[in-house]
Amino acid sequence: MIAEEWGADRLLALYRAVGAADSRAQAAGPVLRVELGVGPEEFTRRWRAYLKRELG
Q: Per-residue pLDDT tens for 34-46?
């Protein structure tokens, strides 16, 4: 979903930023905002919509 909506470069940047963080769990929200421009709630909404479209 991330590669489709934001592009492969953003997906790679997201993985790198989360991987470089001291605490991955704490980094997820800030990294989503920086790399994708959305917070965890918006990302979750989009993820659920994507799954519904893809899997029915």
A: 999 999 999 999 9
pTM of the model: 0.82
Distances (CA, A) of 29 to 18, 36, 39, 47: 10, 10, 6, 14
- Asked if 29 and 46 count as a contact pair (C-beta separation under 8 A), the reply is no
Instruction: Return the number of other C-beta atoms located less than 10 Å from residue 27's C-beta.
Output: 16
Cα distance between residue 39 and residue 42, in whole Å = 5
Q: Where are the alpha helices (DSSP H) in 1-56?
A: 2-6, 8-20, 24-36, 40-55
